[in-house]
Amino acid sequence: MNSAASVIKRSGDADPESPWLGLQSFTEETQRYFFGRTAELQEIFERVLHKPLTILFGQSGLGKTSLIQAGLIPNLREAGLLPVSIRVRYDEDAPLVGRQMIAALSDALTSTGREDLSAICLGASSLWLLLHDPDCGLIGENSSAVVRPVFIFDQFEEIFTLGEGRRHIAENFLETIAAIVENRMPPDVRAQIETDDRLAEREDYQAHPAKVLLSLREDFLHLLERWRWQLPTLMDNRMELRPLSGVQAVQAVTEPGSLRSGKQPIVSPEVARAIVRFVAGVQPGVPLDELDAIPPLLSLMCAELNAQRLAVGEETIAAEQLEGRSEHILEKFYSNVFSNHPPAVREFVENRLLSDAGYRQAVTLDTAEAELVRAGVSREAGMRAIIDLVERRLLLVEERGAVRRVELTHDVLTPVAVASRTARREREEGARFAARQRERLRKQRKIALAVVAVLLFGCAGLTTYAFWARQEIKFRQLLDSGYLSLETRDYSSALRNFKEAARRNSSESSPWFGIGDTLVQQFYASGNSRNAPILTEAINAYNNAIEIEKRTKHSGERKGLGHSKLAEAYVGLGDVYAVGADPDFKKAEEFYKQAQQIDPESAKPPVGFGNILLGLGRLHDAIDQYKASLDAALRRNETDYGAHAGLGIAYFGLGRYGLAIEECNRAIGARPNAIVPILLLAHAIYMNDRNDPHAGDLLRGLVGSDMRRVDSLARMNLAYLLLEKANLSADKSLLSEAVQYLQDAYQRDPYVFSCFRLGIGRALQGDAKEASKLWETAAKLSWGGDPLGQRIYAPFLATMRGQPDAFSKMQEITRDLEHEGAVGVLETVRRDAKLIQRSGLYDAQVTPVIAVLDGALNKAREVR
Questions:
Q1: What is the pLDDT of residues 202-251, one digit of tens each?
Q2: Which side of the chain, N or C, has fewer Cβ within a 10 Å radius?
Q3: CA–CA separation, 664 vs 652, rounded Å?
Q4: Report field, pTM of the whole predicted structure over 0.70
Q5: Angstrom distance (rounded) from CA 689 to CA 443
Q6: CA 549 to mean position of chain CA atoms
Q7: Residues near 720 by Cβ (< 8 Å), separated by ≥ 6?
Q8: Local structure of 257: helix, strand or coil
Q9: Residues 13, 253: contact at Cβ < 8 Å?
């Protein structure tokens, strides 16, 4: 039996009767049907022609790949250049990027009939030598180029997604590209030249025969910009691809349909304008030059309308075909392609071809076939499904590194696929809930039957059983109300309902779990790390739940649930001991280990271990635990808020703010009502880009939060946004506004950080007496359950107060953080130190602190 890999070929063939490709990108073969981008094509061509490095960026779905494949590449060939398209491999066995580029160059030369040069390429030891050694044949005398390659990296954002965690790939890429565009000789070549005089003499060190184009999504541009120090050319030559204008969109609709020989155009200008306005979602009278249209949606609409035309044998597309059609073009297309396939096919696409964060990801065809078989789809049916989805342009198969991989055709599909996956999982959860409800009703029916039976024995018995039935129903209502209140952070109502449920039925574990969970969340929300009574009550509640589950876990009906709930109780106890003014990490770890022994597949204990490691400053070890938790959650098809939130904090601590932003968004996606990750997201956005206004918008939205600590931190961060951009001698109003934020933060939540930072504000106002007084007060306040912050800020605060040995302790903790690569932690502390320095009041104390932090930051960046 043939596999799908042996029969699938690239779809996307067009002909004059079907000239629109839907979601498929245009290629060199289909360039005659590519219209609407004349100005952009000319601009990108000139940029590539005149500069060694070009950056093309734009939002997902605007047609960057089509512009390159169907527009730029043919123009480069006509100009005598050699396009070399590369999709970098990131698998474990992938060669270094330089070798991948040499292999791609060899293939490109072979395709143009230059097998002689192709063979030389394959034998070359270095890409730089290929481009500078006349003996290789790519350059002639006086730097004249025999071959002028243009290395094209489409979908380059993959280096930040698929390449994440493989640092050597990015480093090798930077070195290789710098060698081309900045003529920077690689170290290995320099060593070779130094020992080979003949090679050194014949090298043409001024040759610049090759060019590079990087094309990536706009939302990854900030990650690329981090390379600007190693590759300054990145900032010189950029082009943003914007959406099609209404006029361009009409051209993209009418021109492809005008290529039929001897026949009228498939779409008239009038109908084309109607289609464009329909896709843009505007009224018929809106001028075309005011419209933006998304190319994939436009092409998909034309392809669907054309298929409908062909099905009824009409010569042209009529305006009437738009009437009554769903405006949700993508949703309809997406649902229709799965209509003839088993549900497991759709689940495979949504679970395996989409990452947790909603990005496209590829799997090998062999893996796809095997996973469909494991899901109960026969090999033949799975093969037919993949072939059909490729032909219908939902999926794309590409060969990379001699391996065929399948992925979604276009990024524009990911939102609808994510929405479908979310809806399916909600339905599955709803089905599980319904099953629990049916079980509850079954129990209630048993109660009712018992009541009926009692009727046989008299009204006294009936009264007793009726009371019992009402108690059971009321008990379940209280539990439901408690969890609903907990979800909406109405802790007092949740606690009241759970306690009443426990009073009515103290032998059930559920209300005790609810009490424990509510108290722990209330503790976090209160921001009072010395609120020992809350933690003591939570411990008692979890202990009650544990005892109940130990008694019931061996019953046949509850065995699986019992193990899971018992493990959750131990995790809850661990969480209690891991927080507070004086956390007991050893005790917390013992409880997490007990939970792991009871339920080894649970995702919750690794989150607890990760939180402990965060508090100890072991950020990399914490990340490993959070990733283990995500793996466990994936196996159980669960969301994992705790792991994503923890990863956000850990990545922030390492100064990897882009990754922190991604994880915060994933945490918010897993728990939309969560507030803490929004605060961290705002902080990460600001640290990633001081000019991004979104950070301030998020922080202002958190002011007034019912979680005092969140409200306080939001005000402090807003103050810092103002302080860091204010010219203190001139912007008195900004300084006053910032200090007001700090004062409100301290009044709302008086703990070390709010007091310490209000002292910084007073110092910036020139009030050294008040600042010192506040720092004396801060030394007596709670650290708010932040052990890592306490480790570095306690000696910092003590240094500012002139305590002996404080500075040496500061040096000790900064050494630990620099060895960990904790750039984010160190940068946060340095912000405070630099603000104190700006006051000019504490130079003797703060100057050596800044020097220590600067040295630690430099070393931490090397470690990271």
A1: 888 777 889 999 999 887 887 888 787 778 888 889 999 988 889 999 99
A2: N
A3: 10
A4: no
A5: 57
A6: 38
A7: 738, 831, 835
A8: helix
A9: no
